[in-house]
Design a protein that fits this description.
With 291 residues, the chain is of the alpha/beta class. The chain has 7 helices and 7 strands, in the order ββαβαβαβαβαβαα. The strands form 2 sheets. It has a 5-stranded parallel beta sheet, with helices on both faces. It has a two-stranded antiparallel ribbon with strand order 1-2. The longest helix has 38 residues. It starts with 20 loop residues before the first strand and ends with a helix.
């Protein structure tokens, strides 16, 4: 009331929880009039109310849900499709390695014990399905001299694919033995793709998993120049979907070609029409002979 009340004020201090409740206030003029008022004394808890325009809470919630769904969708798409999209873009717009004096796209090196997998699966799929020209090279048991066996052939290939397995190293699959082979491969005159039939051991696995940017110009303690190597893990069966995408990304770009189904269908129709004509002519000749 802006201090306009004339009279006295009653102030109650040190209020306890048991003091809250209902009270009666009696006002009297001591002559002929009494007024009784009921008063409730209670503790009001603080309330924090966010005042927003009508419908804005619903719009904000829908926007938040939409953002979350969009982020999850982008993450799922990236996880599932980034390799195919990257490969498609590279083959469509990437620089072609042509007229460079090379005889083949890949020199595929392997040990005799891995020949069935290399010839029957790896080279077969690279040539028949992905249109790469490969040249196989079977290596000897002297894995300490493999670089000498490969160097003369590697200069004529755009890539070198080395299939490495414990059997090819006399079942000595250690950091020292594997690093010794990688050291030889890292100095070849062509970029090298190592296809490991078993997980890399220890320190070698750690270096192989590092990104190309992180391991640039890195020469580790074993003398391996990892910038020149791409290490891929072959999975049981046919290698696995991810393996083939990564292998093709490491290989030279190849322009995609349109499906030849239509041309084949037309050829088959023409051929079928020709056969029908021949059959009709033979039937007419047979009828004339019969007459």
């Amino acid at each position: 009331e802006d201090d306009q009340i004339i009279g006295s004020y009653l102030e109650i201090q040190n209020v306890l929880f048991t003091d809250y409740g209902e009270y009666k206030c009696i006002i009297s003029n001591s002559v002929d009039e009494d007024i009784t008022l009921t008063a409730h004394v209670y503790e009001q808890e603080p309330q924090f109310v966010l005042h927003l325009p009508n419908g804005s809470e619903r719009k904000s919630l829908l926007l938040a849900v939409l953002v979350v769904v969009l982020l999850v969708s982008v993450a799922a798409f990236y996880t599932r499709c980034w390799l195919p999209v990257a490969l498609l873009y590279r083959d469509k717009f990437g620089r072609l390695e042509e007229n460079d004096g090379k005889d083949c796209d890949a020199l595929v090196c392997y040990h005799e014990k891995d020949s069935s997998l290399v010839i029957g699966k790896l080279i077969y799929k690279l040539e028949s399905k992905h249109r790469y020209k490969c040249m196989p090279l079977e290596l000897t048991n002297l894995h300490h001299n493999w670089s000498l066996e490969m160097s003369s052939h590697a200069s004529a290939a755009r890539r070198v694919i080395m299939v490495l397995s414990p059997a090819s190293l006399d079942n000595v699959w250690t950091d020292a033995s594997v690093a010794g082979v990688l050291k030889q491969l890292s100095v070849l005159p062509a970029r090298t793709i190592v296809v490991a039939l078993q997980g890399m051991p220890g320190t070698t696995a750690t270096m192989a998993k590092r990104s190309r940017r992180d391991r640039r110009d890195i020469l580790d303690g074993a003398g391996v120049f990892y910038e020149q190597l791409t290490v891929l893990r072959w999975k049981e069966g046919d290698g696995g979907r991810e393996f083939w995408y990564k292998l093709r990304l490491a290989m030279p770009a190849i322009r995609p070609v349109a499906s030849e189904t239509g041309c084949q269908s037309v050829a088959m129709i023409v051929q079928a029409n020709g056969k029908c004509g021949q059959q009709k002519a033979r039937s007419r000749e047979s009828l004339e002979v019969l007459v």
